[in-house]
Amino acid sequence: MKYVNANKVLPEKLIMEIQKYVQGEIVYIPKQETEYRKWGTSSGGRQMLDRRNATIRNSFRSGSSIWQLAEEYYLSTETIKKIVYSHKK
């Protein structure tokens, strides 16, 4: 999130209206809901985790234990259980 000076992007009448409610403070203006993206979609982080989790599930089905997977992927056994017992394909 970056700071933008209202004087540079908003019309003077709108600034005057906003000043009725708040002055000299930082105001966060959220994106419209249609602009929201799920976590990791821009960076590719979500895809990376999905691939990792699929690999963990396949290893579990092939006989690796929860404990072995936790050691290999540096995750807790509880996290591995959530991954392998979820219904994602």
Helix and strand topology:
Blueprint lengths: L5 H4 L2 H8 L25 H17 L4 H8 L3 H8 L5
Helix pairs in contact: 4-5
Provide structural commentary:
The chain has 89 residues and is mainly alpha-helical. It is built from 5 helices and no strands. α4 (66-73) packs across α5 (77-84). The longest helix has 17 residues, at 45-61. The chain starts with 5 loop residues before the first helix and ends in a 5-residue tail after the last helix. The model has no long low-confidence stretch (mean pLDDT 90). This is Mor family transcriptional regulator.
Distance between the termini: 35 Å
**Overall average residue pLDDT:** 90
Order of helices and strands: HHHHH
- Low-pLDDT runs of 5+ residues are none
CA radius of gyration:
23 Å
| SS-derived structural category | mainly alpha
Number of beta strands: 0
How many strands, what sense, and barrel or not for the largest sheet?
none
Strand coverage percent = under 5%
As a percent range, the share of helical residues equals 40-55%
How many helical stretches?
Answer: 5
Shape label: rod-shaped
Protein name: Mor family transcriptional regulator
Q: Can you give keywords for this protein?
A:
89 residues, mainly alpha
Quick structural overview:
The chain has helices spanning 6-9, 12-19, 45-61, 66-73, 77-84.
